[in-house]
Automatic annotation (TrEMBL), chain A:
InterPro entries cross-referenced by the UniProt entry: MetI-like, MetI-like_sf
Protein name: ABC transporter permease subunit
UniProt xrefs under CDD domains: TM_PBP2 (cd06261)
The organism of origin for this protein: Paenibacillus woosongensis
Transmembrane annotation, as ranges: 6-24, 65-83, 196-217, 253-272
Keywords, ordered alphabetically: Membrane, Transmembrane, Transmembrane helix, Transport
Stored Pfam families: BPD_transp_1
Domain called ABC transmembrane type-1: residue spans: 57-274
SUPFAM superfamilies: MetI-like
Family according to the record: Belongs to the binding-protein-dependent transport system permease family.
TrEMBL record, chain B:
CDD domains named in the record: PBP2_AlgQ_like_3 (cd13582)
One Pfam assignment: SBP_bac_1
Key word Isomerase present: no
Signal sequence annotation: 1-22
Record SUPFAM superfamilies: Periplasmic binding protein-like II
Record's protein name: ABC transporter substrate-binding protein
Keyword hit for Kinase: no
Organism for this UniProt entry: Paenibacillus woosongensis
Domain of life: Bacteria
UniProtKB keywords: Signal
Length: 287, 567
């Protein structure tokens, strides 16, 4: 039964690992695999010795972490709120509207964000000025320190609706009789959420958390690339953009692979650590 | 259970089969019949060849189209039986080209931009030498004088550049390249003064803004997005009286290359912008806007001045022109000025006649029938077809007077300027991007190959307001305001090929990263802190290894000069 899938796994997931050897060569695309010159750890050295690297890593981790925390908190909150709704029509409308942005490509989404944040006539500046919070328009994308926040909010706007789906699904598996019993015992709405809904979806939350920690180095690339500019580069440039600039755009595929290897290894370690911690705490875990 | 296993294995087989066929497909489209008889010369007229479609990739954004859907392409198909399916770039050029290389499967014909080095180093093009010798008498006629510059180090020609000048050189009547642009209403109000220095130019803007408060005007704007950052970094070179050599200035006498990123000219330019910003005349959003926002601002008519290359802002300028034609008021249109730092500097905005040898069109290693393609190229390079692709059809898109001079009536000019017509007729696809007589070429009878450079057409295409403006400055065409270009055999230095991933290339990337970070800081800083930030920038810049880069450029310039002079 499982033989075809094993074959599939080997062909598509394990054989490509051979390509990692490119990281140790000065790879030239036109030549065959055996005509390449070997370069040892040269590309790893370039990667780790570049002074940009520390900054790039900091940005990658910081933005990932912000996305992780914000993503979880907002998605779970919205899911609970939706779960408490009694009017089915209203619930559907809110759900649809909140997950529509997920289907817009980042190219379009970042244009919308850039326009909204624009200093001449952008809605954010207009509203803040109207409220009297600021006196003159702020160049939101021109200040590095705002970038992580802007990115976090953008990610939430784009993905919150989508992320709630799995929690809502988990909530439907909670036995309604528990709610009835709690109600008879005199539990209020918040107590029911705290004591029944949240424990009910705990296993899903833990599993997702473990998986997402494994993806900490994958901040995504498009929003940072499209919203980034010279003024916020200290905060917006992440590992993927660095690799694009110094690897792919220069035809230096070896460097790109070296960075990819580094990411995979770190992700691997993070995933196992998180899983191990979950095991120690006696929680559900990935494996 | 047994039954189930049977069906599962059936399913597996089907899936594997479909996977395999998906991988091997795609190779055979377009191969509708390529049974050409090789060696029968370029006799497209003598023999009726089967119709064939080749694929063609152009690394700029545009509308994908079959050449035979355009009038010009249809005529060319009748001559040669060849149709090209043109694919344009979506997204980033380097990424797209990277995919071609990684998969080792290319369209038949490639017109890359900056990624051409990458394609060359991956051996993506076939050498054309023998093909040209055998099937390309016209290609030989047009390109032979430039063979020295076209040959790669191994002596092969891998692509045909589009800048081979044929016949006597005709300079452009309008500004097609870089200049400082200013809105015509500013000049009008000041009584059409002759402006030469950067200070005069900026003062003109200052005064206009002062006189028109409350109109929400933007004094000066710049374009700084990803690939267009050079629009901000190039002006110091022009202001100092040099043509666009890219990141370096080449000394006229010693031919030594100097990276001016840390020079006084750059400092002076940025300091002026900094001052402008302190006065509230510089559009701060310049550093965060994307290209669309920038173009929209210029098209809005609120911007008084900026530096850029005509081909970058063409879209906005055309919009303003169309609006001006409707209202009869050209106040919001722009005029190009040859601005320099000091009175005694001679401006060099106009490109010297040059041969750009790092852009061109080549045939890929995946091409199914290079002979048919090279014959098509050769056929394009007849005088008749160059007239067809630049002027169109006599009586329809151009006329000829009794002296044999080509001209266009006003109606024809309007028609051939309209974007939709240019697409359907095919000018948009055939004026450029194919082997061609380069800009400034002329026909044996003295007519210009490019319609835009024919004085009759240029005169005719000037609106009444254009003529008034020209008259006010006492010139016949806009480029007459600019100094004639000096001879620079290496020009343009930006076309010098730098090896992929070499220290020099890493230097240019690092320089660009650094400038992207510091230039906004310098311009937007409090004027009192300008010097401090500048020193910091120069310190950082000197860490990057500029000396090696300059040495490399100096050597390459010397090589190119030798090649051009036939040494």
């Amino acid at each position: 039964m499982s033989v075809p899938f094993l074959i599939w796994l080997i062909i598509f997931k394990y054989l490509p690992l051979w390509g990692w050897s490119i990281a140790f060569q000065d790879y030239k695309p036109a030549k065959g695999m055996f005509d390449q010159t070997w370069a040892g750890l040269k590309h790893f050295k370039f990667l780790f010795q570049d002074e940009h690297f520390v900054r790039v890593m900091r940005n990658t981790l910081a933005m990932s972490f912000i996305n992780l925390v914000l993503g979880f908190v907002t998605a779970i909150t919205l899911a609970i709120l939706l779960n408490e709704l009694r009017k089915v029509v209203f619930k559907r409308v809110v759900q649809t509207i909140s997950y529509l942005p997920h289907f817009i490509s980042w190219v379009v989404a970042s244009s919308i964000i850039a326009t909204a944040l624009s200093a001449d006539g952008g809605i954010i500046n207009d509203v803040l000025m109207w409220l009297g919070i600021i006196k003159e328009p702020i160049l939101w994308l021109g200040e590095g320190k705002y970038f992580w926040g802007i990115l976090g909010v953008s990610e939430v706007w784009k993905n919150v609706g989508w992320n709630t789906i799995i929690y809502l699904a988990a909530m439907t598996s909670i036995d309604p009789s528990q709610y009835e019993a709690a109600e008879i015992d005199g539990a209020g709405r918040f107590q029911r959420i705290w004591n029944i809904t949240l424990p009910g979806i705990k296993s899903v939350v833990v599993i997702l958390l473990i998986m997402n920690i494994g993806n900490l180095l994958e901040t995504g690339f498009e929003p940072q690339y499209l919203l980034g500019n010279g003024m916020n580069v200290d905060y917006s440039e992440n590992l993927d953009i660095f690799v694009l600039k110094y690897g792919i755009q220069m035809g230096n595929f070896s460097l790109s692979i070296a960075a990819g290897m580094f990411k995979t290894v770190v992700s691997f370690i993070l995933l196992f650590t998180a899983n191990h911690i979950a095991k120690r705490l006696g929680e559900d875990r990935l494996f | 259970m047994k039954k189930r296993r049977f069906w599962l294995s059936c399913l597996t087989i089907v899936m594997l089969a479909s996977l395999l066929s998906a991988c091997s497909g795609g190779k055979d489209n377009g191969k509708v019949g390529s049974n050409t008889s090789a060696g029968s010369g370029n006799g497209a007229q003598e023999e009726k060849l089967d119709k064939v479609t080749f694929t063609y990739f152009n690394a700029v954004a545009g509308k994908d189209i079959n050449t035979n859907e355009t009038t010009i392409g249809k005529i060319l198909e009748e001559q040669t039986g060849v149709n090209f399916k043109i694919e344009h770039l979506v997204g980033d050029e380097n990424t797209k080209v990277g995919t071609f290389i990684a998969s080792n499967s290319y369209p038949d014909v490639l017109v890359p931009g900056g990624s051409i080095d990458k394609l060359l180093s991956s051996g993506s093009f076939i050498p054309l030498n023998d093909l040209i010798d055998q099937y390309g008498p016209n290609i030989k006629r047009v390109y032979e004088p430039y063979y020295n510059l076209m040959k790669a180090e191994d002596g092969n020609i891998y692509f045909l550049p589009m800048s081979a000048v044929v016949g006597e050189y005709i300079s452009a009547p309008n500004i097609e390249q870089g200049a400082f642009w200013i809105q015509r209403r500013v000049l009008k109000e000041a009584g059409y003064p002759k402006i030469k220095t950067f200070d005069d130019y900026l003062n003109l803007i200052r005064e206009y803004v002062k006189k028109h408060p409350g109109e929400d005007l933007t004094g000066y704007i710049a374009l700084t997005t990803q690939d267009q950052f050079f629009a901000l970094t190039n002006p110091p070179m022009h202001l100092a009286g040099y043509p666009n050599d890219g990141g370096v200035i080449i000394d006229m006498e010693t031919h030594e290359a100097n990276d001016y990123a840390d020079d006084d000219i750059t400092k002076r330019y940025l300091q002026e912008l900094n001052q402008l910003n302190a006065e509230g005349l510089f559009d701060k959003s310049s550093f965060v806007d994307n290209r669309d926002q920038y173009l929209a601002k210029i098209a809005s008519g609120k911007v008084l001045g900026f530096f850029d290359y005509r081909w970058q802002v063409g879209q906005s300028m055309n919009n303003l022109r169309e609006a001006a034609q409707q209202t009869g008021n050209d106040d919001l249109e722009y005029m190009a000025l040859p601005i320099v730092f000091d009175e005694n500097i001679k401006d060099q905005y106009l490109d010297p006649p040059s041969f750009v040898n790092n852009r061109g069109v080549g045939i890929s290693v995946s091409a199914k029938d290079p002979v048919r393609i090279i014959k098509y190229f050769d056929n394009l390079l007849t005088d008749e077809n160059q007239i067809l692709s630049n002027w169109g059809i006599e009586g329809e898109t151009y006329s000829v007077d009794e002296n044999g001079r080509f001209y266009r009536t006003e109606e024809q000019i309007n028609q051939t300027n309209a974007e939709a017509f240019r697409e359907s007729f095919g000018f948009k696809y055939f004026e450029y991007n194919w082997p061609r007589y380069g800009n400034g070429s002329s026909l044996p009878d003295g007519n210009s190959v490019g319609a835009g450079r024919q004085p009759e057409v240029a005169q005719m295409s000037y609106s009444d307001s254009d003529k008034k403006l020209l008259e006010a400055y006492g010139i016949q065409s806009f480029s007459q305001l600019f100094a004639a270009p000096d001879v620079r055999p290496w020009y343009p230095a930006w076309s010098i090929q730098i090896e992929q991933g070499s220290p020099a290339q890493i230097f240019t990337q690092k320089k660009s990263d650094l400038q992207r970070k510091y230039f906004p800081k310098l311009v937007l800083a409090n004027p009192a802190e300008f010097d401090k930030i500048w020193d910091e920038y120069v310190k950082e810049f000197n860490k990057l290894g500029v000396k090696d880069y300059e040495q490399l450029m100096t050597d390459e310039v010397a090589k190119k000069v030798d090649l051009v002079q036939g040494k």
